[in-house]
Design goal:
The longest helix has about 35 residues. By secondary structure, the protein is mainly alpha-helical. Helix 1 packs across helix 9 and helix 2 runs parallel beside helix 9. It has 17 helices and 4 strands.
Length: about 400
């Protein structure tokens, strides 16, 4: 235990002293602070007249004589609060020239209530004005038909604005609500494994260049060496995540009133406690398993330059798991046969099982089986990686063959 604590302290201290590690952490915190404080700063810089007619873009309506222009103006003004809507009596050619020059943002040419042309200089991929106008004109058309049929304006308005109430009773998981939590967890786990896994492999390969490693590996137990390195890197990564997400929560609470209308941002910081516990559990176990394997592979590399090639098969497994889970996450169907298999296979269960817990239906015994298999695999892979580490670190020159590693492990 003393050996493990000594190695753990040394490895963890090296991360804390690493300028890149500290710099990246501080940069992420500063970036998050800038994002979360942006609405507050933006509001303080505003002059308070953003909503005045002078500051809004101009939208023109060109309507024929048979159209109720006052009704159109009122309806379009209500449907497009971000624009100053005006009825234009000019020819459409003149209106088009104003749009091209930037004097007017856009315009609608109405042919009654059932046909229109939408004019805009540069059509944005997020421009929904045409769809909004379609809905407005549909309502106006129905309203005019009811008036012409003899209904009073009050009766027509009552029909058009009849309140419809509905209630959704969710007996399972709310996929829309849990999607963002699942996406963040999977993406964060993927990035942390890729980053810190490579760091573990590189650290082990670098040590092979030091002959003092021979004395250290023969005097310290390989299990202590491997577990000390991996757990230190895991704690460093976890500390970085806690600092980043902790500062995000702090900054968000400071500026919560300025994000009140953003349901997506609010939902990110309202993760249920049970889901957060499962997230941390699978995150930690998944990271440890891959970190042990990265460390073992790093010990077999003869040169630091060979690390990327050596870890490529393991990286491909991680990428395939990430893509498969993301595909099912995007489709919303997370309880397929493939996902059920992936949720119990240790190399993919950290991502797949958490996805099913958050967005699917998994009995508690299924979660328990997955956790037991994953935890057992982490311990087994850790012990095996320690033996490979002892053999690999003492080998120089060409990378050892698999048969040589197996024989050395059996003899050990």
């Amino acid at each position: 235990m003393k050996q493990f604590i000594t190695i753990f302290r040394f490895e963890f201290g090296s991360y804390l002293k690493n300028k890149i590690f500290v710099g990246v952490t501080l940069a992420l915190i500063i970036l998050i602070a800038g994002i979360t404080f942006f609405p507050r700063v933006s509001e303080s810089l505003n002059t308070g007249d953003e909503d005045s007619d002078e500051s809004k873009a101009v939208m023109l309506i060109v309507a024929d004589e048979d159209t109720d222009k006052e009704a159109v103006l009122a309806a379009f003004s209500a449907a497009f609060p971000g624009y100053t809507v005006n009825i234009s009596e000019e020819e459409i050619g003149s209106v088009r020239d104003k749009i091209a020059s930037g004097e007017v943002a856009c315009a609608f040419e109405l042919d009654g209530y059932t046909s229109f042309k939408y004019y805009v200089n540069n059509l944005s991929m997020y421009d929904a004005n045409s769809a909004v106008a379609t809905g407005v004109l549909e309502s106006l058309y129905k309203y005019s038909i009811m008036i012409s049929a003899g209904l009073t304006p009050e009766e027509a308005n009552a029909i058009m604005n009849a309140p419809i109430t509905g209630e959704t009773v969710n007996l399972g998981k709310d996929q829309a609500k849990n999607f963002i939590y699942t996406y963040i967890m999977i993406f964060a786990l993927y990035m942390v494994i890729m980053l810190y896994g490579q760091l573990v492999a590189t650290s082990v390969a670098t040590e092979k260049n030091s002959r003092a490693m021979e004395l250290l590996i023969t005097s310290a137990k390989p299990v202590n060496m491997m577990f000390g390195k991996v757990l230190a890197s895991g704690l460093a990564g976890f500390a970085q995540i806690v600092l980043v997400f902790g500062s995000s929560l702090l900054f968000f609470n400071i500026n919560k009133d300025y994000w009140g209308g953003n349901s997506v941002i609010n939902s990110i910081f309202a993760i249920p406690g049970e889901l957060l516990a499962y997230m941390l559990l699978f995150f930690v176990l998944g990271f440890l398993m891959y970190a042990f394997m990265f460390g073992a592979i790093g010990s077999t590399a003869s040169k630091i330059e060979d690390i990327n090639t050596s870890v490529l098969p393991l990286t491909m497994v991680l990428v395939i798991a990430f893509v498969a889970v993301m595909f099912h996450l995007g489709s919303g169907n997370v309880d397929t046969g493939l996902m059920k298999f992936l949720s119990y296979f240790p190399l993919t269960s950290p991502m797949a099982m958490f996805t099913r817990i958050a967005m699917g239906s998994v009995p508690f015994y299924g979660i328990l089986i997955s956790v037991v298999l994953l935890a057992g695999s982490v311990f087994g892979i850790g012990v095996l990686s320690a033996k490979i580490y002892r053999v690999g670190v003492l080998l120089y020159g060409t990378p050892p063959k698999l048969t040589s590693i197996i024989k050395s492990i059996i003899k050990a």
